[in-house]
Design a protein that fits this description.
This is Penicillin-binding protein. The chain is of the alpha+beta class. Among the domains are: about 230 residues, Penicillin binding protein transpeptidase fold (Orthogonal Bundle); about 100 residues, Beta-lactamase (3-Layer(aba) Sandwich). Helices cover about 45% and strands about 10% of the residues. It contains 23 helices and 16 strands. It has a five-stranded mixed sheet with strand order 2-1-5-11-12, with helices on one face. Strands 7-6-16-15-14 form a five-stranded antiparallel sheet, sandwiched between helices. A hairpin with a 5-residue loop joins strand 11 and strand 12. Helix 3 runs parallel beside helix 9 and helix 12 crosses helix 14. The chain is elongated and about 100 Å long.
Length: about 625
């Protein structure tokens, strides 16, 4: 009797609804056809938002990025037939027969809703639920229901039944942030869908009907009861036998909740920043920024951010050079040596043969998206700049040797009168002595001799972002910069020495691919030869002697080919050490976020101890 009533009501009301669409869409007193209305409904774009992954250098997952949904799209052929049967039997038994909507179900729902004077039943088919999840809201109104029917009909005209079922199983919500069966399998059982038993599949299938009520974590018993009802439906439909139904119901269900993977925040926060720069470069934003006004740049920034968001929500794989072991050592070294000290620090580690950033410390007790001192803290470099701005350019242009003498006495040029440490004077000394003991006045004299612009022409190759024209003065020879450079920038520049005078920008990202392995983005940096092999060999010897018998003796590594340079700024506001050992170049900065003296740490040399712990 209810079925007949449903057909009767539909025969009256449904044509009326369609007629309303005709009359409401009149243009110049001429109604559009239904086909024209449907053509205005575009359902071709069905890309579901998926989580993206950041992978370490060995291929393991470092971080799962939900932007905004935790979903892993599972192709139709990989969805178990058992699960498909459950959803069809429980949600839409006529799925393979109807055109997107079920007249009988609509009639039955209308009868109930008229009786209850509200919208109590929706009678949505699987196709309608897909339409609602992808294109519409979840508001309970007749207007939304009509739109849902039209979208469902258009979906059926555009996609096969199998494609629609695939969309449905990947789109539905399984509570606790999990969308689609693959994410649900991972979250609740720490398995892939293919590894789930029939009992586990049926248990998960119970959730989407009412995700909060059937939340397995909060209401396990509710979920289990619905699972058993679903298994009963399969038995009633003849899809499984009685004994198998009882076996599945009796299977123990044990949750193994998998927390979101979000490791190595110091490193992955920078990876996300680098992602923006990679997209900006390869999609032409850099060139557009260069020509844009300030207002236009703001618009471009929003456009770029939206593009990156879309990219992340498409389920990309970001392949990085992260070395988990060295990353942990780097973070721990900063923590160990600064944990009980009123100072901060940062470190960067680069495998210079590949110019890959393999580890970063954003600071003591760093939390993801905090101020990241490795790449956001611009600090004056002190004497750590001397090999780059003074000595290498000097050797390159003069062909001098390290045994050549230089004046280490007092120096004044107009009102600029730099001093050596503790105001000492040394007279004429070999360049080697001036270098390894970090005398200041010889460095100023050498830069003055070759010309300030010559020194800066060389370090321009390192692309220090905050080096400005006002820095082109003699105090720069001893680290006097307006803003300075970041620990990562300075560490990257030092790779020029173990790399034979060549420089290429170091990166964390190796490539970005889609889920099928297609490369979407990858850096294409080309190396630049800055200094000759002769110059590099000379500076390398000086850097090694600085470590063995100069200002960096506390970091000395016996029987290792290692070199580096210390740096200390005025009033001991910054302590630096940047150096290389074997295939690693590492840089360490220690200071306070609001610069003030840390002279009390000078003798402890935490920057040297941190570096030593990282590379040893």
């Amino acid at each position: 009797m209810r079925t007949l009533s449903g057909y009767f009501i539909i025969s009256i009301l449904f044509p009326l609804l369609i007629g309303t669409v005709f009359y409401a869409t009149q243009e110049t007193k001429k109604a559009k056809s239904l086909d024209t209305i449907l053509e205005d409904i575009h359902v071709e774009e069905t890309n579901l938002k998926q989580k993206s992954l950041i992978l370490a250098g060995n291929g393991s997952i470092a971080t799962e990025l939900y932007n905004p949904e935790n979903r892993v799209f599972l192709p139709f052929e990989q969805i178990p037939a058992f699960l498909k049967d459950i959803f069809i039997v429980s949600e839409d038994q006529n799925f393979y027969e109807h055109p997107g909507f079920d007249l009988t179900a609509i009639g039955r729902a209308l009868t109930v809703n008229i009786k209850e004077d509200g919208i109590e039943q929706g009678a949505s088919t699987i196709t309608q639920q897909v339409a609602r999840n992808l294109y519409l809201s979840h508001n309970k109104t007749y207007n939304r229901k009509l739109s849902e029917i039209l979208y469902a009909y258009q979906l059926e005209r555009t996609f096969s039944k199998d494609q629609i079922l695939e969309l449905y199983i990947n789109a539905i919500y399984f509570q606790n942030g999990a969308y689609g069966i693959e994410a649900a399998a991972g979250f609740y059982f720490n398995k892939n869908t293919a590894q789930l038993t029939k009992g586990e599949l049926a248990f998960l299938a119970a959730i989407p009907n009412n995700p909060s009520y059937y939340d397995p974590i909060e209401h396990f018993d509710h979920t289990k009861l619905r699972q058993e009802r679903l298994i009963g439906l399969l038995k009633h439909s003849g899809l499984i036998g009685g004994s198998e139904a009882e076996q599945i119901k009796g299977e123990p269900i044990v949750l193994h909740i998998k927390k979101r993977v979000d490791q190595f925040p110091d490193y992955t926060a920078y990876v996300e920043d680098e992602l923006h720069r990679l997209v900006a470069q390869q999609d032409g934003y850099d060139a557009r920024f260069a020509e844009a006004s300030e207002q236009e740049q703001a618009i471009l920034e929003e456009e770029l951010a939206a593009k990156v968001d879309d990219l992340l929500s498409s389920g990309i794989i970001i392949h990085t050079a992260l070395d988990a072991g060295i990353q942990e050592k780097t973070v721990q070294a900063v923590q160990n040596h600064l944990g009980n000290i009123d100072a901060q620090g940062a470190a960067a580690v680069i495998r210079h043969r590949d110019m890959e950033i393999i580890a970063l410390s954003g600071g003591k007790n760093y939390q993801k998206y905090d101020f990241h001192r490795a790449y956001q803290a611009y600090r004056q470099p002190g004497s750590a700049i001397k090999p780059l701005l003074v000595y290498a350019p000097y050797f390159e242009r003069t062909k001098a040797t390290a045994s050549e003498n230089v004046d280490a006495g007092r120096y004044c040029n107009k009102n600029y009168c730099p001093e050596n440490y503790d105001g000492a004077t040394y007279g004429r000394v070999p360049i080697e002595q001036a270098f390894i003991h970090s005398y200041n006045t010889p460095a100023v004299r050498l830069l003055e001799k070759i010309g300030i612009q010559e020194g800066f022409a060389d370090i321009d190759h390192f692309h220090f972002k905050q080096v400005v024209s006002d820095d082109h003065v003699l105090p720069a020879a001893v680290g006097g910069f307006t803003y300075g450079m970041t620990p990562l920038e300075l560490t990257g520049a030092y790779t020029v020495f173990p790399n034979g005078g060549q420089y290429r920008t170091p990166r964390t990202i190796r490539k970005i691919t889609d889920r099928n392995g297609k490369i979407l983005y990858a850096w294409n940096d080309q190396p630049v030869q800055i200094w000759s092999q002769q110059t590099i060999e000379t500076v390398d010897q000086l850097l090694q002697k600085t470590l063995s018998s100069g200002t960096a003796r506390k970091a000395y590594l016996p029987n290792r080919a290692a070199g580096g340079k210390t740096g200390t700024t005025n009033h001991f506001k910054d302590l630096w050490f940047v150096g290389y050992a074997d295939d690693l170049t590492a840089g360490v900065w220690v200071g306070k976020d609001q610069p003030e003296s840390i002279e009390s740490l000078q003798n402890k040399a935490p920057q040297l101890m941190i570096w030593r712990d990282i590379v040893k």
